[in-house]
Specification:
The chain is 57% helix and 11% strand. By secondary structure, the protein is α+β, with helices and mostly antiparallel strands. The longest helix is centred in the middle third of the chain and has 37 residues.
Length: 589
């Protein structure tokens, strides 16, 4: 205790049995990607995460980062582990081959990111942010910017970070004040201060590429006046060599609740040179390439901590002896039974398991759509897949991080007093995962994005409802699956009704959307998990003599009987409306 072991068996189940990864390899660029190759990649990444990264988790939490006059030093062992990460080619899994990347599917990379962040979330943040920076550059950079910076970001030789938030504005970026003044050579001089910048300064790479939101002198007010700039920590010469230090520096490092091994920085730009990315005044739109990449990545962080917490809780419950099983002693020769025999402990463990495995399926289903949206030769198929990704991105970010926090807290409860002390590692999971519900847009903001934008404005509900309805209709006559299909159908009916009710009310009563959003998010997410758990049960049912599939079926039943019924309460809260939320005057709080 604590411990980490990558859940490779479940990874392979999700890829090859639930989501037909072999069919996925027919997409352009994935041809010839055999199961043997995928298993080798996942196996090697599991060993790297367990042997190299996981041993750093507790020591990094205790040591934290060091800040001295603008310089940030990461915890002991981080530089060596990061060098091995780059040497192994792990940051380049999904990067384009022309940039030295391996062009692997997002489905495979999501599983690598889960393992990496289960092993040490503070360490995983560095390459995760760099991947988001690479995606943004690849989507919106010009040819020169891609050629100069793309291969270095793809490999992880240089790292990336994004600079959005300012002290007076968080989610409302239309209020930002950082200025960008044009220079005679086509560059811009940026002046301002950014806060809460993850991995904003560190010693892992010789250069950091910042993507900074700022205003041009003639910018209109609000979010329509924001431009995006590429600002290197060290200026880059035309031949790719490093030049002089740029005028961007770390002014402070925040003292935080968790993720102590990753610095959260105040970054000062004092005339720092930057280069426009994309069109002027269109920076926020371009920035969403990185923001949406990071939102999904943050969801994976929640999944990662949930998985680590569940492992710790199970290991403890098998060893901790206390009391007797309600049905009588399991081993009369011992003074007590392990606590895993107790129904309430089993309830907590199964809740952890059902949520963790369900969230893994949801993340991979979204990754599958992301791969299709980027690579399918048929534009109409790409568009349908892109709609699924747009719809599910806020769900993955919000629900998986909510579950990460819920599962981590249940882990503490399973360990009891031993979970509350630092020696067993469980309380670190609670502290580390808590930020994931906040950054990249709080989960309330993600819920508003799902309901207000994706459902009510863009009308994407059918992207989810269509496949679920088709699945239910094709299986509802199968008595073997009735215990899974009937609850799924009932939850989907509640979700459809809640969607209809809010749509009818929202135009006349704008508060309805905000009052319902968080409950709607969870209702939507639980229905999504019910759909995936039903599919998983269908796969497992014919193989019930094997312990893995027996456990899968038992967990699916637990989800349907003990977690999914929450949808009825969520529906009741949604249809109750906004009146009780808005009743108090502001001064009465």
């Amino acid at each position: 205790m604590p411990q980490f072991q990558a859940p490779l068996r479940d990874h392979l189940f999700c890829l090859f049995e639930l989501l037909d990864f072999e069919g996925h390899t027919k997409l352009p660029g994935f041809e010839g990607l055999s199961r043997d190759v995928v298993e080798a990649v996942l196996g090697q990444s599991a060993r790297f995460c367990a042997d190299v990264v996981y041993p750093l988790n507790r020591s990094a939490d205790e040591e934290g980062v060091h800040f001295d006059r603008g310089r940030v030093t990461t915890p002991q062992g981080f530089r060596q582990a990061y060098a091995r990460l780059v040497e192994g080619g792990w940051p380049a899994l999904t990067a384009a081959p022309e940039h030295g990347g391996q062009g692997m599917p997002h489905m495979v990379n999501f599983l690598f990111e889960e393992m990496l962040n289960s092993a040490c979330l503070s360490f995983g943040l560095f390459p995760g942010l760099t991947r988001g920076a690479y995606v943004l550059l690849n989507d919106h950079g010009n040819a020169e910017q891609k050629a100069l910076h793309g291969p270095k970001l793809a490999s992880g030789e240089w790292s990336g970070s994004m600079c959005l938030t300012e002290a007076h504005c968080g989610t409302d970026l239309g209020l930002l004040k950082t200025q960008a003044v044009p220079q005679p050579d086509g560059s811009f001089a940026l002046t301002g201060t950014k806060i809460f910048i993850s991995a904003g300064e560190h010693d892992l790479t010789p250069n950091i590429i910042y993507f900074v939101l700022a205003r041009l002198p003639d910018a209109p007010k609000g979010s329509k006046g924001i431009s995006l700039f590429l600002v290197p920590k060290v200026l880059v010469n035309q031949d790719g060599s490093l030049g002089a230090r740029n005028a961007i520096s770390c002014g402070a490092v925040e003292q935080k609740m968790g993720i102590h091994g990753c610095p959260t920085c105040v970054m000062n730009l004092d005339g720092a040179l930057g280069w426009l990315v994309g069109e002027a005044h269109q920076g926020l739109k371009a920035m969403f390439s990185m923001m949406n990449t990071e939102r999904i990545a943050v969801g994976i962080h929640g999944l990662a901590i949930a998985g680590a917490s569940y492992q710790n809780a199970v290991a403890y419950a098998r060893e901790r002896a206390q009391g007797r099983a309600p049905s009588g002693p399991r081993d009369a020769g011992k003074p007590a039974d392990p606590i895993i025999v107790h129904p309430d402990v089993r309830r907590m463990l199964l809740t952890q398991r059902a949520l963790t495995e369900g969230c893994r399926m949801l993340a991979l289903w979204t990754a599958q759509a992301l791969d299709v949206s980027e690579r399918h030769p048929d534009a109409a198929v790409r568009k349908r897949a892109d709609d699924v990704v747009a719809l599910m991105t806020p769900v993955v970010k919000a629900f998986l991080t909510d579950c990460g926090s819920e599962v981590a807290n249940l882990g503490v409860q399973v360990l009891g007093g031993h979970g509350f002390i630092r020696a067993n590692g469980q309380e670190q999971h609670v502290r580390d995962v808590r930020i994931t519900q906040i950054y990249e847009g709080t989960n309330g903001i993600q819920s508003m994005d799902l309901l207000g934008r994706k459902i009510l404005h863009l009308n994407l509900f059918g992207s989810f409802s269509g496949p679920v309805t088709a699945y239910v209709e094709s299986r509802e006559a199968d008595d073997r699956l009735a215990e899974f299909i009937a609850p799924l159908a009932a939850a989907h009916d509640l979700l459809e009704d809640a969607t209809h009710v809010i749509r009818e009310r929202a135009a006349a009563h704008p508060e309805e959307t905000g009052a319902a959003a968080v409950d709607y998010m969870r209702l939507f997410a639980l229905t999504s998990l019910a759909y995936l758990w039903a599919r998983a049960a269908e796969v497992a049912a014919p193989k019930g003599n094997d312990d893995f599939y027996r456990a899968k079926l038992a967990t699916a039943r637990f989800f349907m009987q003990r977690i999914l019924p929450d949808t009825a309460a969520l529906h009741a809260k949604i249809v109750a409306g906004a009146s009780s939320v808005m009743e108090l005057d502001e001064a009465m709080f």
